[in-house]
Amino acid sequence: MAPIELAAVITPKPGQAEKFLALFDKCVKYVQANEPYVLRYELHKGIKELNGNEQFVVLEKYESKEAMDKHMQAPPIQEMINILGEGNLADTQVIMTTKGPGITSRL
Fold first, then answer.
1. Which residue among 11, 20, 28, 30 sits deepest, i.e. has the most Cβ atoms within 10 Å of its Cβ?
2. How many domains does one find in the chain?
């Protein structure tokens, strides 16, 4: 199966950005130490002046759907999913993709 990619747009509620960043940092440390099948796990900070509010985009890539499913069950990931699911921290939109046509990064 082709790798699975995921993009999540996180829009923190007022005053909640630092709490989200702390949760994400905990997840990053776990992924680095325990999940070699996670090929990409990075956060991009939106430009508030251009977007109108504070946003983060999390870009993830997994070797397979099975790898993504395993990642989603990890304790710090479950903690973040549960907190985000309560709806008090941030609004979240998640899009799962596989590679389509286009130009691969030239960087």
1. 20
2. 1
The residue type of 20 is F
Q: Is residue 106 part of a domain?
A: no
Both tokens assigned to 29: 């440390």
User: Is the model more confident about 7 or about 1?
Assistant: 7
Is residue 30 within 8 Å of residue 76, measured between CB atoms?
A: yes
Report the distance separating Cα 70 and Cα 50, nearest Å.
36
Which whole-number Å values give the CA distances from 76 to 19, 33, 34, 97, 101, in the listed order?
A: 14, 12, 12, 23, 34
pLDDT in tens, 47-101: 988 888 899 999 999 999 999 999 999 999 999 999 998 888 999 999 988 888 8
CA atoms within 13 A on the CB side of 96: 8
CATH number, residue 77: 3.30.70.100
